[in-house]
């Protein structure tokens, strides 16, 4: 049994030793799981806001608060672990929203759009996603199997991305 | 009457009484010129509370390189009125949350963490909106989900039904509660606060914290609790099987003159403040 690393809110963990990385209770935040099967390494990011322009000082203290600085910092860290950006598989989950046809609290949606925009800049695409709706998700990156799964709150079954 | 509701109302009778200091603080702070001395005097009568207040003042964040604090009066100087009062309220109320949450698919302690987080972010929001009754707001936030503690074991039997309603994506958690149980967790919390003799505006804010437009007295208080709760849920703090299945209040930004960037700044404030407060409570 390999170790389980818990990724908190506004946090990222990377590993190259076959661990399971897990993050709990994704609401409007987004979990981004990234792995390079050749390097046998990967990381899980749990960011909460779309754009570091909101507060650049905070972003320099903790880049994992934001989509843009969070993803950039994660990719740099993974490159140091021997990953190559072109080989990366990327999957995302979360980005839930309060029920609102008028988009009053659309941080979940903006978090998702920010993710797509940043990945496009790196010439990367999402290989799997489970995003939106109004429910709570846990997300797991299993580096021994190179698999990503999501579990909804109150439900036993895992959904494979 | 609904037999389940009757049973739960009977259980309300068995809830231990609210420590008297909470009402004392609320009544002192509603005075136009509140006397902190009165509150200190009551804290000093309680050995456990005194110990905890002093321990908080000596926690790493507040102590920095200062001397050890030895009295409640010295703790007040270090923590400030607002923090000291809020921490006394929190310490007095934590007992009601000790084992609750598992019925809602929360880890032990997570419902309490959600209550603290909601209360913390409410204080920053109140600064922004210049809302005056900060202690009433803090306490209402601490208590907003206390109904869930009384519904915990019943909820574990109704989970599947609730989830199948929510899976439709069009039913709010409150509507699901009403259809399946006939009452909401806000209602149960409000009944407990009524029994404890809380002021009407706070009872109303707890009862309607997911539908603040229905609060008849203290609408502003109810909207503050609502927004503080929603921010925590969006951040995933205490996010349970109900998820974000609640309706948005689109007039709330105009009502408080807030922008979405203001709300996002509250996310940042909370993630830092919660870490600090958890460290302080651990001592």
UniProtKB/TrEMBL annotation, chain A:
The chain crosses the membrane at residues 21-49. It is an enzyme of class 3 (hydrolase). Its EC number is 3.5.1.44. Keywords: Chemotaxis, Hydrolase, Membrane, Transmembrane, Transmembrane helix. One of its GO terms (biological process) is chemotaxis. It holds the Pfam family CheD. The keyword Hydrolase applies. The keyword Transmembrane helix applies. Signal peptide: none annotated. SUPFAM superfamilies: CNF1/YfiH-like putative cysteine hydrolases. It catalyses: L-glutaminyl-[protein] + H2O = L-glutamyl-[protein] + NH4(+). GO terms for molecular function: protein-glutamine glutaminase activity. HAMAP family: CheD (MF_01440). Belongs to the CheD family. Probably deamidates glutamine residues to glutamate on methyl-accepting chemotaxis receptors (MCPs), playing an important role in chemotaxis. This is Probable chemoreceptor glutamine deamidase CheD.
Automatic annotation (TrEMBL), chain B:
Residues 15-212 form the HDOD domain. It comes from Candidatus Raymondbacteria bacterium RIFOXYD12_FULL_49_13. It holds the Pfam family HDOD. This is HDOD domain-containing protein. Signal peptide: none annotated. InterPro entries: HD/PDEase_dom, HDIG_dom, HDOD, RNase_Y/CdgJ.
């Amino acid at each position: 049994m390999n170790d389980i690393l818990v990724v908190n809110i506004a946090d990222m963990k990377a590993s190259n030793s076959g661990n399971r990385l897990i993050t709990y209770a994704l609401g409007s935040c987004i979990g981004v799981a990234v792995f390079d099967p050749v390097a046998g390494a990967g990381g899980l990011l749990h960011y909460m806001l779309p754009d570091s322009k909101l507060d650049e000082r905070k972003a320099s203290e903790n880049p994992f608060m934001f989509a843009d600085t969070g993803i950039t910092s994660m990719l740099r860290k993974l490159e140091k672990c021997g990953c190559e950006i072109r080989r990366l598989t990327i999957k995302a989950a979360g980005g839930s929203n309060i029920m609102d046809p008028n988009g009053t609290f659309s941080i979940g949606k903006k978090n998702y759009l920010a993710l797509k925009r940043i990945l496009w800049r790196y010439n990367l695409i999402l290989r799997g996603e489970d995003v939106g709706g109004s429910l709570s998700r846990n997300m797991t990156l299993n580096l021994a199997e190179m698999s990503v799964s999501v579990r909804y709150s109150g439900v036993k079954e895992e959904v494979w991305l | 009457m609904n037999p389940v509701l009757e049973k739960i109302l009977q259980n309300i009778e068995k809830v231990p009484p609210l420590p008297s200091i909470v009402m004392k603080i609320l009544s002192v702070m509603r005075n136009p010129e509140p006397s902190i001395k009165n509150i200190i005097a009551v804290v000093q009568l309680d050995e456990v509370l005194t110990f905890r207040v002093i321990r908080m003042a000596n926690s790493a964040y507040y102590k920095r390189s200062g001397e050890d604090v030895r009295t409640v009066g010295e703790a007040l100087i270090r923590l400030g009125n607002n923090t000291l009062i809020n921490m006394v309220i929190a310490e007095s109320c934590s007992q009601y949350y000790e084992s609750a949450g598992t019925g809602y698919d929360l880890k032990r302690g997570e419902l309490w963490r959600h209550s603290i987080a909601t209360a913390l972010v409410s204080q920053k929001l109140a600064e922004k909106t210049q809302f005056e009754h900060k202690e009433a707001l803090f306490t209402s936030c601490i208590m907003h989900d206390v109904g869930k503690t009384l519904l915990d074991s019943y909820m574990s039997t109704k989970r599947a039904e609730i989830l199948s309603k929510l899976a439709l994506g069009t039913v709010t958690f409150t509507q699901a509660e009403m259809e399946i149980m006939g009452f909401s967790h806000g209602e149960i919390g409000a009944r407990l606060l009524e029994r404890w003799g809380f002021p009407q505006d706070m009872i109303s804010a707890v009862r309607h914290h997911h539908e603040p437009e229905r609060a008849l007295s203290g609408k502003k208080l109810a909207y503050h609790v609502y927004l503080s709760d929603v921010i925590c849920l969006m951040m995933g703090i205490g996010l349970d099987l109900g998820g974000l299945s609640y309706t948005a209040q689109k007039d709330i930004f105009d009502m408080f003159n807030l922008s979405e960037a203001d709300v996002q700044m509250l996310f940042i404030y909370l993630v830092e403040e919660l870490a600090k407060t958890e460290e302080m409570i651990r001592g």
